[in-house]
Design goal:
- The complex is a heterotrimer.
- By secondary structure, chain A is mainly alpha-helical.
- Chain A is built from 14 helices and six strands.
- Chain A is globular and about 60 Å long.
- Chain B is α/β, with parallel strands linked by helices.
- Chain B contains 15 helices and 17 strands.
- In chain B, a hairpin with a 2-residue loop joins strand 2 and strand 3.
- The longest helix of chain B has 20 residues.
- Chain C has one domain.
- Helices cover about 75% and strands about 5% of the residues of chain C.
- Chain C contains eleven helices and four strands.
- The longest helix of chain C has about 30 residues.
- The chains are: A mainly alpha, B alpha/beta, C mainly alpha.
- Chains A and C meet through helix 6, helix 11 and helix 13 of A and helix 4, helix 9 and helix 11 of C.
C-alpha cells in the first residue's frame, strides 16, 4: 500500500497543457466531481473543499517561497488573520453580520498589511534567519489570538469564535441544501463550486504574475539579490510586494475556512500547519504553479484516503487492528517526504527555471 | 473481524473469533451473521482524539463506549421485533476542530443514528452543528465547556458536568475547608483549562477571597518554575491549575522543589492516577475534582467489566462515555426505533443509574444535578474524599455508608422512564435517588 | 530580591537545557547549513531509551546513579546510530539539491521518529524514573536543586568538550574546513562524507544526554516532548549565531533567562495587560529584535549568500 501511494506520485507528470479538448474534459470533470464524490459520501466533498483551501494557501506561499525565494515558516499566521477577520465581522461575537463579499477583501487587505508588517523589519535577513523570524512571527500571532480574550475580549481566547455566518449570496445560503435542475446541492457542494471559482481566479492571477515584470523581478531577487539591485530593481519594494501578495491569498483562504467551518479557534493555526503548507509547496515543486497544486492535493488527500483504507485493510488481513490508521498515516507521510525529496529534490513537478539553475551544482548527483 | 472465517488463518483465530462473537465486538459496517434473519443493525459513532498529546484519554473514552456497546449486544436487545446488533464506528478527531467536522460528516455518511463524543469541547462545539443539521443526536462524555449546550441546538447532550458546575464545586470545597486568604489561578491557555480556571476564579472572587492575576502556560509546557516563583513571592494559600496531567505533573513537582507551601488543586484533567506517577511524592495532599461520581462509588460492575475487557484501569472519562453510550442505546430501546426523530424525545427524558451515578438531562441537554467529586492524594493514592451535589457537601465515607445501606442501584438503564421522570429528584441523597428508577423498572 | 535570584536560577537552568539541545542544531548547521528539524526528536528518543533502561536496570538491582550513567551511555549509542542512519538515508542523497529539500526531508524524519516512538512507548506521558533523589539547597534565598546543579555542570562540560573537539583536534579542523568549503576540503584530502557523518553522530549523542537531563529534571517523558523543546533550542541557536558553539551556549542561557524574567515580571510591568501568557511572545520578540540589529545572531559571523 505504501508503494501504491508513492508510485502514483511519479506517474503524474505528463504535459497536458495547450490541448483544448483535454482542458474541456478537465473542466467537465471538475464540475461533475462533487456529485461523484457525494456518491462516496459527503465527507469526501468536505475533504475536497479543505484540499482546495490548502491549494489556495500553497499558491500564496509559493509567491513568497517559490517566486521570491523568501523562506517563510509562519505563513499560517495570514490564514489565521483572514479567518479571524471573517469571524469577527460575521458572527454573534460582536453582533456584526457583514456579507462575505465585503469581508473577504477586508480580510485579504488586513492579511496583506500583516505581510508588510512581517516583511519590513526582516528585509535584511536571509535564508534560515528569515525562516526563524517568520516562524516566531507565526507563533506570536497565534499566541495573541489565544490571549486576546482578556482583559478586553476581542478574540474570545482559546474558546474560539462560534456560530460564524455561512456564506450567503442573495437568498442562497451555503449552509443549507437547495435543489436546482432536479439536483440536490448540499452545503459542501455549493462551497465546492465557490472555492473552485476562487481557485480559477487565483491560478489565473498567479500565471499572469509569474510572467509579468513583477514575476521576473521576484525571480531575479531569488537568484541573486545583489545583481537584481544592480539591474535597477527596487528589492525592498519587490520583496514587500511578495509578502503582501502571498499574505492576501492566505487571508482569503482563511475567510473561506471561517465561513465553511462555522467555528474557529487558535488551535487551527499552529506551527505544524505552516510546516504542512511549506511541505506542499516544496514537495510539489516550488516555483511551479502546477507542481504546487499537485503537492497540495496529494498531501491533502493522502491522510483521508489512508484513514478510509488502513483500518478496513488491517481488519481484513489480521482480523483486528494492529497499528492505528493515524500512526500508519503519519509514518507514510514522513517516509513520503523523505523519499520524494531523496529522488526528486526539486519536487514532484519542478519549475523549469529552477531545474536549470540547480543542474550545475550537482543536482543530479544520484541519477 | 467478521471476515475472519474466510481467512486461511481462521483456525488459529477461532478462539479469538468466538470470544469476540460472545462479546459481540464489531466495528465494521459489514453485515453480521447472527442466525435469526430478522435482525437490525444500529450504528453509533464514537469520536475522540486517538493521536496527539491526549490520545491516551481518547482511547480510554473509546473503550468506555465500546464496553457499553458490547454489553448491549450481549443482552440480545430486540428493536421493533428484530434482533438488534449495535455497531460502534470509532473515529479519530485528533482533537482538531477541522478534522472533527470532517469525521463527523464521515459518520453521518455512514448512517450512524447517534454519536458519543467528542472528547474535547474544542471539537465538540463545531461538530455539534454538523450533527444537528443532520438531525443526529450527540452525547459528549467529557466536553465541559458551557458553550456546547448553550448554542440552542437540538439533540446535543453531555453526561459530564459543566465547567461552571465543576469549578464552583471545587472552589467551594477549598473555600470551606482550607479557608484561603489569597488564591493563585494558573491555566494552560486551552479552552478547557482556561474555561475551568475562569469558573474557579469567579467563585473565589464572589466569596471575597483575593485572587492573584492569572498566570498562564501552554499545553506543552514542561517548565513552570518562572510562573511558580512569581506566585510564591505572593504567598497564596491555595493554587488552582486548569490543565491536563501531562503539564500538571511537572508543575506540581517543580512547586515542591521550590518549597511552596500552598495547597495545590486541579480539575478533572489532572485528577488521574498518572498524575500521581508523574509528580511522585509532590502530589501528597493535593486536591482535585471530577465531574460526576467516582466510578469506585457508582459502579463496581463497570470497573470490573472494564478491567476484564481491556486489561487496564480506566483513566478518567471512560465511565462517562460508557454512560453516554448506554443512554443512547436505552433511548433507542425505549423508543423501539433507531430513528433519531423517534428516540430523541425519549433520550431527552431518559433516566437511569449509570457508572457515574444518576443520568438525566435538562432541557438544554446538560446533565441534571450532576454530582461532583473531590479527590485527595493520601499515601500516594488518589482517593475520593467528598461528593458535592446541589451545593451540598457530603464526605465520601458518609456517602458510601448511605450507599451501602440503600438497596443495590439498578445498573441496567431503562429507556421507558420518559413518562414517570421526576421533575426534581430527592436532593442530597444520591444513593436513594439512584434507587428511584428501580421503581420505574418494570 | 530573593525572587529575582530564584528567577535567574530558573532561567539559567532552563537555558542550559536549551543550550545543550542547541549545540546539536548548531553543529549540523555549521557544517552543512541544514536545519536538522529532527534533532528535537533525537532528544526525545534519548529520553525514552533511558527511561526504559533505567527502569530495567533498577529492577535488576543496579543502584541509582550507575543505572542512570549506564542508561545514558546506551541512549547515546542508540541516538548516535539513529543520527548516522538519518544522515546516510535522508540527507546524504540530498547534497547539492535545492536547499529546501533537506529541510522537508528533516521534517519527514521528525514525523517518522515521533510516530515510531509512539508505537514503542505509547502515547501516555511517562513518569521518568527519579533515581537520584532531588535535594533542595538554599542559595542566597533561592532554592537550587542538585539536579539543576547537575544539569548546569554537565552542559558546561559538554560545551567545553565540544569546543575542544572542534577547535583543538584534527577532526575539528576537518569539520571546520568542510564547513567553509567542502570542495576545497575534499581536494586537501578531507573525506567530507565521513566528517559530516561524524558530526551527526556527535550531535545525536549530545541529544541523548540532553534527553536524559530533560527527563530527570521535569520527571516526564512523552513522544511529543522533542518538538516543542527543539523549536526553542533552535531559536537559541539562531539567537547566538547558528553554527557557532559558544553562541549556542550564550543563546540558550539568554533565551532561558529572558523567558523566566518575562514570565516573572512582564505582568507587573504592564499592569497585567500582558502576563505570563505572553512568555513565548517575549522570547520571540527578543529573537527578532536581535536578528534585526545583528542579522547573523549575537556571535555569528556574516555568512555569505548561500541561499
Amino acid at each position: 500500500m505504501k508503494a501504491n501511494v508513492q508510485s502514483k506520485g511519479n506517474a503524474l507528470l505528463p504535459a497536458w497543457r495547450n490541448r483544448p479538448l483535454g482542458v474541456a474534459l478537465v473542466v467537465l470533470a471538475l464540475l461533475a466531481l462533487p456529485f461523484v464524490l457525494a456518491g462516496a459520501g459527503t465527507a469526501w466533498v468536505r475533504i475536497t473543499n479543505l484540499a482546495i483551501l490548502f491549494v489556495l494557501l500553497s499558491l500564496g506561499l509559493n509567491i513568497v517561497v517559490g517566486f521570491a525565494g523568501l523562506l517563510d515558516l509562519g505563513y499560517i499566521a495570514f490564514y489565521a488573520v483572514g479567518a479571524y477577520v471573517y469571524a469577527l465581522l460575521a458572527s454573534p461575537h460582536f453582533g456584526i453580520h457583514w456579507p462575505f463579499w465585503a469581508i473577504l477583501p477586508i480580510g485579504a487587505l488586513v492579511a496583506a498589511l500583516f505581510g508588510v508588517l512581517l516583511g519590513a523589519p526582516t528585509l535584511k535577513l536571509r535564508g534560515d534567519y528569515l525562516a526563524i523570524v517568520t516562524l516566531g512571527f507565526g507563533e506570536i500571532v497565534r499566541i495573541f489570538l489565544n490571549n486576546l480574550g482578556s482583559p478586553v475580549n476581542i478574540t474570545n481566547g482559546p474558546r474560539g469564535i462560534n456560530r460564524i455566518d455561512p456564506v450567503t449570496i442573495g437568498d442562497l445560503n451555503f449552509a443549507r441544501t437547495d435543489s436546482f435542475f432536479g439536483l440536490a446541492f448540499s452545503g459542501p457542494v455549493k462551497y465546492y463550486y465557490l472555492l473552485l471559482a476562487m481557485l480559477v481566479v487565483v491560478i489565473f492571477i498567479n500565471l499572469r504574475l509569474q510572467n509579468s515584470r513583477i514575476g521576473r523581478a521576484w525571480e531575479a531577487v531569488r537568484e541573486d539579490e545583489i545583481a537584481a539591485r544592480a539591474m535597477g530593481i527596487d528589492t525592498t519594494r519587490i520583496k514587500l510586494l511578495a509578502f503582501a501578495m502571498g499574505a492576501s491569498f492566505g487571508g482569503v483562504a482563511g475567510g473561506m475556512f471561517s465561513a465553511m467551518q462555522g467555528f474557529i479557534s487558535p488551535e487551527s493555526f499552529v506551527l505544524v500547519e505552516s510546516v504542512m503548507v511549506l511541505a506542499m509547496v516544496v514537495l510539489g515543486g516550488m516555483g511551479n504553479i502546477w507542481g504546487v497544486i499537485l503537492g497540495a492535493l496529494l498531501l491533502s488527500f493522502l491522510p483521508p484516503i489512508l484513514r478510509f483504507t488502513v483500518q478496513p485493510l488491517q481488519e481484513y488481513f489480521f482480523g483486528r487492528m494492529l497499528v492505528e490508521p493515524e500512526v500508519i498515516r503519519m509514518l507514510i507521510f514522513g517516509f513520503a517526504l523523505v523519499l520524494v525529496m531523496g529522488f526528486r529534490p526539486g519536487g514532484l513537478w519542478p519549475a523549469a527555471v529552477r531545474k536549470r539553475s540547480f543542474s550545475g551544482s550537482g543536482g543530479g548527483a544520484h541519477d | 473481524m467478521n471476515n475472519s472465517s474466510n481467512h486461511p488463518l481462521s483456525l488459529s483465530l477461532t478462539a479469538l473469533f468466538t470470544a469476540s462473537l460472545l462479546a459481540g465486538c464489531g466495528e465494521e459496517p459489514k453485515p453480521a451473521p447472527p442466525p435469526p434473519p430478522p435482525s437490525i443493525e444500529i450504528k453509533i459513532g464514537h469520536l475522540a482524539p486517538l493521536t496527539g498529546g491526549i490520545a491516551h484519554l481518547g482511547k480510554d473514552n473509546e473503550n468506555g463506549a465500546r464496553l457499553a456497546i458490547e454489553e448491549a449486544n450481549a443482552a440480545n436487545i430486540k428493536i421493533d421485533g428484530k434482533d438488534a446488533k449495535f455497531i460502534m464506528l470509532a473515529e479519530d478527531d485528533q482533537a482538531d476542530p477541522k478534522i472533527g467536522t470532517t469525521v463527523a460528516q464521515k459518520l453521518i455518511d455512514a448512517k450512524v443514528v447517534g454519536v458519543v463524543g467528542h472528547l474535547n469541547s474544542g471539537t465538540s462545539i463545531p461538530a455539534s452543528s454538523v450533527y444537528s443539521a443532520a438531525n443526529i443526536p450527540m452525547i459528549s462524555g467529557s466536553a465541559t465547556n458551557p458553550q456546547l449546550t448553550e448554542q440552542g441546538l437540538k439533540g446535543v447532550f453531555r453526561v459530564m458536568g459543566r465547567d461552571d458546575q465543576q469549578g464552583p464545586a471545587l472552589a467551594s470545597y477549598l473555600a470551606a475547608n482550607n479557608k484561603p486568604k489569597v488564591v493563585a489561578v494558573i491555566d494552560d491557555a486551552t479552552a478547557y483549562g482556561e474555561g475551568l480556571a475562569n469558573e474557579v476564579e469567579k467563585f473565589f472572587k464572589g466569596a471575597n477571597i483575593r485572587v492573584l492575576p492569572r498566570e498562564k502556560g501552554d499545553d506543552k509546557r514542561a517548565d513552570w518554575k518562572a510562573v511558580l516563583t512569581k506566585i510564591k513571592g505572593r504567598n497564596p494559600d491555595v493554587v488552582f491549575y486548569g490543565g491536563m496531567d501531562a503539564t500538571a505533573g511537572p508543575l506540581l513537582k517543580q512547586a515542591h522543589e521550590l518549597n511552596m507551601k500552598a495547597v495545590f488543586s486541579f480539575g478533572d484533567g489532572a485528577c488521574t492516577a498518572n498524575m500521581v506517577e508523574l509528580a511522585g511524592a509532590a502530589t501528597e495532599g493535593m486536591l482535585c475534582s471530577q465531574a460526576g461520581l467516582p466510578p469506585a462509588a457508582a459502579s463496581r460492575k463497570f470497573l470490573d467489566a472494564y478491567k476484564a475487557r481491556f486489561k487496564i484501569e480506566p483513566i478518567v472519562y471512560s465511565p462517562f462515555t460508557y454512560d453516554a453510550m448506554q443512554a443512547l442505546i436505552a433511548a433507542i430501546k425505549g423508543a423501539n426505533s433507531p430513528d433519531p426523530s423517534k428516540y430523541l424525545p425519549v433520550l431527552q427524558k431518559i433516566e437511569f443509574t449509570g457508572a457515574t451515578g444518576r443520568i438525566a438531562f435538562d432541557e438544554k441537554g446538560d446533565r441534571r444535578d450532576a454530582e461532583m467529586s473531590i479527590f485527595q492524594v493520601k499515601g500516594g493514592k488518589l482517593a475520593p474524599i467528598a461528593i458535592i451535589k446541589n451545593g451540598k457537601t457530603v464526605t465520601f465515607d458518609e456517602f458510601m455508608a448511605q450507599a451501602n445501606s440503600a438497596p443495590a442501584p439498578a445498573d441496567a438503564p431503562k429507556g421507558d422512564a420518559g413518562k414517570d421522570a421526576p421533575a426534581v429528584e430527592p436532593a442530597k441523597d444520591a444513593p436513594k435517588a439512584a434507587a428511584a428508577p428501580d421503581a420505574a423498572k418494570k | 530580591m530573593d525572587i529575582f535570584i530564584q528567577q535567574l536560577v530558573n532561567g539559567i537552568t532552563l537555558g542550559a537545557v536549551y543550550a545543550v539541545v542547541a549545540l546539536g542544531y548548531t553543529m549540523v548547521y555549521g557544517i552543512i547549513q541544514l536545519i536538522n528539524f529532527a534533532h528535537g526528536e533525537l532528544v526525545m528518543i534519548g529520553a525514552m531509551v533511558a527511561f526504559t533502561l533505567i527502569g530495567l536496570l533498577t529492577s535488576l538491582g543496579v543502584p541509582g546513579l550507575p543505572a542512570v550513567v549506564l542508561a545514558t551511555l546506551c541512549a547515546m549509542l542508540v541516538c548516535a546510530l539513529l543520527g548516522y542512519a538519518m544522515e546516510r538515508m535522508a540527507y546524504r542523497p540530498l547534497r547539492g539539491a535545492p536547499r529546501l529539500a533537506p529541510l522537508i526531508s528533516a521534517i519527514g524524519v521528525s514525523i517518522i521518529l515521533q510516530h515510531l516512538a509512539l508505537l514503542v512507548w505509547s502515547r501516555n506521558p511517562l513518569a521518568f524514573p527519579q533515581v537520584v533523589k532531588t535535594e533542595s539547597y538554599a542559595l542566597g534565598g533561592a532554592a537550587v536543586t542538585n539536579i539543576q546543579i547537575g544539569i548546569l555542570a554537565i552542559s558546561i562540560f559538554m560545551m567545553g568538550g565540544l569546543a575542544w573537539l572542534v577547535y583543538r583536534t584534527r577532526l575539528g579542523t576537518a569539520m571546520r574546513a568542510t564547513s567553509q568549503n567542502p570542495q576545497m576540503a575534499a581536494l586537501l584530502g578531507v573525506d567530507a562524507n565521513r566528517v559530516i557523518a561524524v558530526t551527526f553522530i556527535i550531535g545525536a549523542a549530545l541529544a541523548a544526554v540532553a534527553g536524559v537531563m530533560v527527563g530527570s529534571y521535569y520527571g516526564i517523558a512523552q513522544y511529543t516532548m522533542g518538538s516543542a523543546l527543539g523549536l526553542k533550542a533552535f531559536c537559541a541557536a539562531v539567537l547566538g549565531g547558528i553554527g557557532n558553539i559558544p553562541g549556542a551556549m550564550l543563546g540558550g542561557i539568554l533565551l532561558g533567562v529572558v523567558e523566566a524574567l518575562g514570565a516573572g515580571y512582564i505582568g507587573d510591568l504592564t499592569d497585567n495587560v500582558f502576563g505570563s501568557n505572553y512568555q513565548d511572545v517575549f522570547a520571540f520578540l527578543v529573537l527578532i529584535v536581535v536578528l534585526v540589529f545583528r542579522p547573523s545572531g549575537l556571535l555569528g559571523e556574516r555568512i555569505g549568500d548561500r541561499a
